[in-house]
Amino acid sequence: MNLFEGCTGNVLANGLAWLNEPLDWSFENQVLTIIPEPKTDFFRGYQRVPSDNACLLYVNITGDFTAVTYTAAKLVEFGDAAAITMRAGATQWAKLCLERSPIGDVAAVSVVTNTWSDDANNELLTRPECYLRLTRAGDVFGMHYSVDGATWRFVRTFGLELPPTIKVGIHAQAPFVGGCEATFNFFTLTHEAVKDFRSGE
After folding, report:
1. Distance between CA atoms of 16 and 4, rounded to whole angstroms?
2. In this model, does residue 201 exceed pLDDT 90?
3. DSSP secondary structure string, 44-81?
4. What is the rounded distance in angstroms from the CA atom of residue 34 to the CA atom of residue 148?
5. CA-CA distance, 47 to 152, in Å (whole number)?
6. Reduced to 3 states, what is the DSSP secondary structure of residue 197?
7. What is the Cα–Cα distance from 158 to 78, expressed in whole angstroms?
8. How confident is the model at residue 45 (pLDDT cuts 50, 70, 90)?
9. CA Rg, the chain, in Å?
10. 193 and which of 78, 119, 137, 145 could share a cystine (Cβ 3.0–4.6 Å)?
11. Is residue 159 part of a domain?
12. How confident is the prediction for the chain on average, in pLDDT?
């Protein structure tokens, strides 16, 4: 199911709700555009002051799932990102991002947080747009991205003990400066996991 169906303007549908609603967002023809405020992020650096104020449009999901979105973004500064995200709370969450690197490249970037955040850059992308996918099978999770929506590339798999019901959604962030803009063409959700996390099939 595409959870963006029925969303228009600033009206949400299908149980979608905001955590940290941004000032500037809207739907047009079921495509969501977000302009995140500067100094917004989800990150808990080890023994550092955490950031937990990025905007997350989510739905509550119980049990196994596969969530997919297609995003294109204007990424101005390091850390600017469009992402697919899951969250049990402020200290347990994970995100798969289309993100600007410190030297200006665009990459698939993953962060898994269990009290503290790790941070891992995956492959570089030639353009700031791609499909992002997050899947759950019990307490094992998988992340994949695709440039064409057909061939999925493995980012990572990990175990994380989370409650049965968590928030799953999309978010945009701008940790330093303004100017980031992200569009999401759809946000689909099924209640089953990808069969093979490694191959993505």
Report:
1. 9
2. no
3. --TTS--EE--EEEEEEEESSEEEEEEEEEE--STT-E
4. 23
5. 35
6. coil
7. 25
8. very high
9. 15
10. 137
11. yes
12. 96
